[in-house]
Amino acid sequence: MARQNAFREMFSFEGRIRRLDWWLISIGVGVLSGLVSPIAQIALGEATVPGTLGISPLTAISITMQIAFTWPLLAAAVKRSHDRGQSGTLPVINLMLVWLPIVLAIVAPGLFKTPPLMWMLTGLFVINALISVWLLITLGFLDGTPGANQYGPSPKGSARGDYQAPRND
Fold first, then answer.
1. Residue 100 predicted with pLDDT over 70
2. Which residues fall within 8 angstroms of residue 157, CB to CB, at 6 or more apart?
3. What would the DSSP string read from start to end of 78-136?
4. Could you tell me if 125 and 61 are in contact, meaning their C-beta atoms sit under 8 angstroms apart?
5. Is the dihedral angle over the CA atoms 120, 64, 167, 156 positive or is it negative?
6. What sign for the dihedral angle of Cα 69, 73, 74, 79?
7. Angle 88-163-4 (CA atoms, 0-180°, nearest 5)?
8. For the chain, how are helix, strand and coil distributed in percent, rounded to 5?
């Protein structure tokens, strides 16, 4: 059943969503992201543009698209956390642990070449992997809080099927 404001809901951090909605958004954004990269590679190649920190146009487009795709994924994860009665802080921490090494590698390319910093990066990767597995289990497989909670009504609706998605009007 399609909702009229589904596009707007995909970018909102308010309310709750069901596991199915979370899976559909996650898989849909993943597939779209996977399609953009090869198309950009065919169109642009791997040439480096002078004055761009050694970043090729393909890499620049890839980073830009990943930032754009991150918003709906984060919004879905936060709303799914809300459905479980949680604040949504863990998906934000996960996102920060994903993007921190990427930003540092772009800003300071030689930063992670020293052994202590490589160990720090490895530690961040392990911590983020554990958080990611936890989020996959809790958001993707565990049921939400039955009935209404502090984040809104249950996305499964009531027995009468009269659930209305939160509106941003």
1. yes
2. 163
3. HHHHHHTT--SHHHHHHHHHHHHHHHHHHHSTTGGGSHHHHHHHHHHHHHHHHHHHHHH
4. no
5. negative
6. positive
7. 85
8. 65, 0, 35
**In this structure, how many other beta carbons lie within 10 angstroms of the beta carbon of residue 148?**
11
43 and 56 Cβ atoms separated by less than 8 Å: no
Supply the DSSP symbol for 164: -
Do 26 and 74 form a contact (C-beta atoms < 8 A)? Answer: no
State the Cα–Cα distance between residues 105 and 126, nearest whole angstrom. 18
Amino acid identity at 138: T
3 state DSSP class of 152: strand
As a whole number of angstroms, the distance between CA 24 and CA 134 comes to 19
Q: For residue 106, name the pLDDT band (cuts at 50, 70, 90).
A: confident
Q: Which two tokens stand for residue 143?
A: 């049921």
Q: Which DSSP category does 151 fall into?
A: T
Please, what is the angle between helix 89-107 and helix 57-83, to 10°?
A: 170
What is this structure's pTM? Answer: 0.80
Note the Cα 142 to chain centre separation in Å.
Answer: 18
pLDDT in tens, 107-140: 887 777 888 888 888 898 999 999 999 999 999 9
